[in-house]
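agent> fetching stored inputs for the nicotinamide-adenine-dinucleotide docking request
agent> found them:
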Amino acid sequence: MLKGKVAVVTGSTSGIGLGIAEALAAQGAHVVLNGFGEAAEIERVRADMAQRHGVTVRYDGADLSSGDAVRGLVDGTVEALGRIDILVNNAGIQHTALIEEFPTEKWDAIIALNLSAVFHGTAAALPHMKKQQWGRIINIASAHGLVGSANKSAYVAAKHGVMGFTKVTGLETAGLGITANAICPGWVRTALVEKQISANAARDGVDQETAARALLSEKQPSLQFTTPEQLGGTAVFLCSGAADQITGTSISVDGGWTAR
Ligand code: NAD
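agent> prediction call returned; pasting tokens
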């Protein structure tokens, strides 16, 4: 379905981003991976994805906490692969603390990566998409783009910001063959969440699985984690013709989290 398209997925060396990159490559898209990790493991993942799907898979290790680096990722993609059709703004980090104890440098880092990078990537990609008259901007927001949770002020502020930014992107590109949407996952058991499960397990003196069940039962009525594969499927749907008129909005994949 996406044969010949070029997709950039930020933060795709693990977790949700990797699941989305895999799903887009499986549809025939050439993919640019980005994120941190061990060089040999990233190369293994890159080569394996390229080989299994018969597509070009590049890796760009840009640190997206700088706006110039985000723009460089997009420009470098167009230079190397000739185009950018799909931009998945996924890279994100978390830090939990009460507002009055929240370290300023953590606040700044979360806003830079989880919110400002979405602006810089979109700004760099849109001129190419407008020229091509086709494009897909997919922002990985969160249930925390729709509701709050204590101790997550920077993350919730950034994700709500992403939701607003997505609406404006949808309006500015309406009718131009470009759509911009957010995906709002609930709990997904990635490195980002495993850290929170470990912290809760230590706090409550329980094992990891008990803490994982408690995390789900507090927020996610399905009592099941959302998976990177399911989010990959959602991203593929947003790239399909069936989604041509879906823009400026969001899709929750949260097991019912935000239904109550
Ligand atoms: P993860 O920690 O598994 O993956 C994060 C990715 O971002 C990794 O590839 C990492 O290397 C990369 N990254 C981190 N800092 C970076 C930087 N400065 N520059 C470039 N890349 C960087 O986390 P995840 O759970 O897969 O999260 C992906 C996105 O999904 C985030 O935006 C997160 O907020 C969102 N999300 C996650 C959940 C969840 O439950 N896991 C729920 C809702 C939304």
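agent> quick read of the result: The chain has a mean pLDDT of 98.
agent> awaiting further instructions
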